[in-house]
Each structure stands twice: as C-alpha cells, then as structure tokens.
Q: What sequence folds into this?
C-alpha cells in the first residue's frame, strides 16, 4: 500500500472516532434527545435489559417500557447472545441517522452516557433521567441488527 492510501485510511479512522454518538454534541454542547445522564445521588428504578438473537431475529427484553417524566432509570444491560450488540438510547430519528453512519463505520464502538457496545455475555449499566415527554427507543445500530428487530420502545409520560 502506498502512503496516500495509508493517509486516507487513517483520515477515515480519525473521522469515525471524532463523529459523535447519537444525540450527542451539537456545536460543542452536549445534547441528548432522550433526556440526560442520571444523578447517582438521587433515587432510581432498576430495569434489567437483555439482548438476544435466534431464529433470524434479534431483540431486547423488555421490548416496551413506560416511565414518568423526571424518573431516573438504571439500565442493567446484559448481552445474552452470541454476537456483539449495542444499547443506544435516543429518539428514533437520531438512531436512524446514526445507523446510516454505522454502515460506513461498522467497527465503531460506543461507551457513552446513552450508549454501550457489548461483547457476547458482557454486562454494563447506564443511569438515565428521562426529562422529556415523548417516545424514545433503545436500539442496536450494528448494521443488520436493527433490521432484524433489535429495537425497543420507551414511552415517557
């Protein structure tokens, strides 16, 4: 490979690292479409979320969740599958935009306040405060996973 090709590959990698996760960073300010990171000093409810795949389908348990505006949820996320999966919490619009970006950079990793990439059998947690009413989701943005059913709905009342 010549130096120009190496430079182009490196530039693409740096761009992938610099691109914000869904619902993050607009003009240097943090912005999350589904609320904000939670405060561990305040009360929260624990919701266990399991990622799974099989029979050509992928998904989460639970598939639907209802929360109150202002409520804090500690998501305890487990990848019960045999494949790498993600938990990305945002509006459907933000997740669809980010899913398109993931098609260009499928090896992108997430370790953000609103999203985690998890290897098989791994666990992680996200503490989140739902400060906005509306419908949001958590979704896996690895190419093909969302299309196989890996999305879940959150209704904030």
A:
């Amino acid at each position: 490979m010549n130096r120009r090709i190496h430079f182009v590959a490196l530039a693409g990698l740096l761009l992938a690292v610099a691109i914000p996760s869904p619902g993050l960073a607009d003009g240097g300010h943090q912005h999350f479409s589904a609320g904000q990171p939670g405060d561990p000093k305040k009360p929260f409810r624990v919701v266990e979320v399991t990622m799974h795949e099989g029979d050509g389908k992928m998904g989460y348990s639970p598939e639907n969740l209802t929360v109150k505006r202002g409520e804090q949820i500690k998501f305890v996320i487990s990848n019960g599958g045999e494949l790498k999966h993600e938990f990305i919490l945002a509006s459907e619009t933000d997740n669809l935009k980010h899913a398109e970006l993931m098609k260009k950079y499928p090896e992108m990793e997430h370790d953000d306040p609103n999203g985690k990439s998890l290897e098989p059998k791994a666990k992680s947690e996200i503490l989140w405060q739902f400060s906005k009413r509306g419908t949001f989701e958590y979704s896996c943005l690895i190419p093909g996973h969302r299309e196989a059913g890996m999305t879940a709905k959150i209704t904030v009342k």
Q: What stands out?
A: The longest strand covers residues 45-54. The mean pLDDT is 84. Residues 70 and 131 are 5 Å apart (CA to CA). The chain has one domain: 3-156.
